[in-house]
């Protein structure tokens, strides 16, 4: 019988091991340029690092504005595909993220409402705050994006603050999953909570001690 500690550690590390090794949906590898590509926490970084610019919509199925805008967003993807044919140097991909499921990505981008639009190009991330019209969005991704200041890298989804939010959300999800699995296996809520807290404190102490040793100043030799 598996020990509760082993169960917790196994589930806690899930998103950093098996999830990262999960195969990318084949739909994101073929016929990508003329349609809206569904992005998830598993394929997001590998997709947007392909050297192209990415127009990304964060949406939620329960959002009425998102539902009504969906046909227009597909038209935007088709038109951008035609524009890509005449531009050799700069290609634009069109993607979307289901914010109701991908909590770590919505936290990483500091999403406060749906729909939300971003242009990701390398390390630069620009938020679109104009009207939700096909013409305005296409003009933004092809021309006027240069007039919009990119998000400061410190607070960018790819910067330290964005990555910290992403990790905290992933860790929180794993803790909740671990707790639920232990409850399902018959352990008491109190015991499960104490065990998870103890493991968390232990990991924190080990991390602090390790960082401390790594940052100790070297003694000068005479």
Domains counted in the coordinates: how many? 2
So, the CATH homologous superfamily of the largest domain?
Glutaredoxin
State the major sheet. Answer: 5 strands, mixed
* CATH uppermost class of the largest domain: Alpha Beta
* Count of individual helical segments: 8
Shape, principal axes of CA atoms: elongated
Ranges where pLDDT stays below 50 over 5 or more residues in a row are 10-30
Number of strands: 5
Structural class given helices, strands, pairing?
A: alpha/beta
**Multimeric state of these chains?**
single chain
For the termini, the CA-CA separation is: 58 Å
Structure description:
With 222 residues, the chain is an alpha/beta fold. The chain has 2 domains: 58 residues, no CATH class; 121 residues, 3-Layer(aba) Sandwich (Glutaredoxin), CATH 3.40.30. The chain has 8 helices and 5 strands. A 5-stranded mixed beta sheet has the order 1-3-2-4-5, with helices on one face. Helix 4 links the parallel strand 2 and strand 3. The chain is elongated, with a radius of gyration of 22 Å. The N and C termini lie far apart (58 Å). About 9% of the residues have low confidence.
Task: Give keywords.
single chain; 222 residues; alpha/beta; Glutaredoxin; 2 domains; five-stranded mixed beta sheet; 8 helices; 5 strands
What's the topology here?
Blueprint: H1 4-12, H2 18-21, E1 36-38, H3 44-48, E2 53-59, H4 64-85, E3 92-98, H5 103-108, E4 116-121, E5 124-128, H6 134-142, H7 160-184, H8 189-214
Parallel strand pairs: 1-3, 2-3
Antiparallel strand pairs: 2-4, 4-5
């Amino acid at each position: 019988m598996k020990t509760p500690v082993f169960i917790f550690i196994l589930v806690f590390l899930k998103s950093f091991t098996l999830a990262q090794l999960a195969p990318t949906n084949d739909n994101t590898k073929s016929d990508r340029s003329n349609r809206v590509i569904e992005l998830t926490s598993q394929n997001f970084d590998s997709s947007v690092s392909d050297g192209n610019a990415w127009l990304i919509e964060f949406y939620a199925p329960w959002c009425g504005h998102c539902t009504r805008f969906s046909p227009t967003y597909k038209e935007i993807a088709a038109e951008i595909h035609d524009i890509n044919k005449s531009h050799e140097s700069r290609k634009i991909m069109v993607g979307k993220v289901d914010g109701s499921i991908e909590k770590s990505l919505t936290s990483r981008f500091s999403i406060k409402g749906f729909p939300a639009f971003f242009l990701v190009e390398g390390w630069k991330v620009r938020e679109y705050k104009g009207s939700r019209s096909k013409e305005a969005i296409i003009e933004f991704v092809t021309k006027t994006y240069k007039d919009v200041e990119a998000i400061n890298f410190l607070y960018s989804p790819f910067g330290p603050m964005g990555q910290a939010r992403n990790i905290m959300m992933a860790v929180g999800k794993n803790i909740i999953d671990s707790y639920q699995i232990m409850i399902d296996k018959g352990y008491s809520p109190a015991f499960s909570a104490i065990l998870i807290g103890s493991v968390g404190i232990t990991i924190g102490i080990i991390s602090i001690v390790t960082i401390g040793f790594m940052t100790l100043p070297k003694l000068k030799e005479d």
